[in-house]
Design goal:
Layout lengths: L11 H49 L5 H12 L9 E9 L11 E5 L4 E4 L5 E4 L2 E2 L26 E11 L4 H4 L6 E11 L5
Antiparallel strand pairs: 1-2, 1-6, 2-5, 3-4, 6-7
Length: 199
Amino acid sequence: MTGHAARPSEPRGQSLVEFSLVLPIFLLIIIGLIEFALAFHGLLSINFASRDAALFAAEMSSDSGSDCVILRSIEEDMDVPAREAGIDEVRVYWATDTGGVMPGNPVNVYHRVGSTTCSLPDGATVTVPYTLVGAAGYPEDQRCDVLGGCGGAHDSVDTIGVRITYTHAWVTPLASILSFGGDGFQFVHSTAMRMEPSL
């Protein structure tokens, strides 16, 4: 009768300790990846929304109701999981040829509260969930879409910019785990385009 060699006992206790040490790190990486993916999607959404809105701004030029069309396009471009409610501010501004803000800061600042209704050139109306802050610094009827200029500093067709400020609210418990604090963080993106000339 042959004897069987004794099998060494499995180090179950050691495996359990190793697993308990690795699991929190693994979960933290997974949570971080999820939060990063959601934040990155928000950033891509406002990048696309500002480009799309600037294109509408360039096409509508000095038409009445153009700001409402710009704001509506931003709302429509915010895809889930990005949130329209995350938009804090939209600025429609007279930009330099390189996309910067003109001296004197002619700008319309909109906050995503309340509502604004605009009349379009064809008689239709558009209502958007935004309110103009203070007076319009860059009124629609003062935007120049004439190649020869419109007088004053408008020596040619204006370049119009759209700037979106968006807050990404924390979705996962990552902020509390790592003690980041706050309710989230902001992204800001601007796009400027030269207006379509009418003459």
